[in-house]
Amino acid sequence: MQSIEEMSDELKLLSDKTRLTIMALLRHQEMCVCDIVEILETTQPNISQHLKKLRMGGLINEERRSQWIYYSLNLHDKGYLKQLIDQLPSMEENINSVKGCT
Amino acid sequence: MQSIEEMSDELKLLSDKTRLTIMALLRHQEMCVCDIVEILETTQPNISQHLKKLRMGGLINEERRSQWIYYSLNLHDKGYLKQLIDQLPSMEENINSVKGCT
DNA sequence: CAATTATATAAGTAAATGATTATATTAGTA
DNA sequence: TACTAATATAATCATTTACTTATATAATTG
Description:
Chain A is of the alpha+beta class.
């Protein structure tokens, strides 16, 4: 059982629209930074900083593959967060309307 | 299905430790402002303002009974939020260690 | 090795947020 | 009607937050 403080810290990570959208995107597939930047139509440093927070909070994993860094969800052992993320709306349309960054 | 923006707004309400604790308290029973003030050991205006946000966000109900105003959870038709609140730690000990405000 | 691409980090700024203190409102009571 | 108790609202302040612009790092390619 987690403490209220731990839970509110995790919820704070999800309470930002950009970060919550990133989580919704990663629900479909892993993505590199430039993918997310393109889909969310914002700047690269903005996304990088949000990804850092999500990673520090243990909500996502990062994995470098040559010049790209791929991010993916990390919600094992996170019961209530997984339930929550599972109920985010589909981002399929947003993902498909974009060509990919390379 | 709710939009990501609606969901992040609701999560923002829960991402503050004080407000999340209030929700955890109300999970056990309805309470008036002075109860919550006493349990959380903070000031009355602080709690009043947090309660206002939760009420504006539709997460709690208020009901006046003579000079007291009682607050209670309002999570019907809020699937994922209900699941979340249900998993908050018990506040029984905190509630019992306090005498009541009148 | 120079140029390019992908990403991270740092610094600055404006806006949002939570808490406090002071004051107003509302209901009960002497 | 005056006084008190419960609550709300307003004003202020310090902190945090998200975003931007500029710069640094790392890998790839010519």
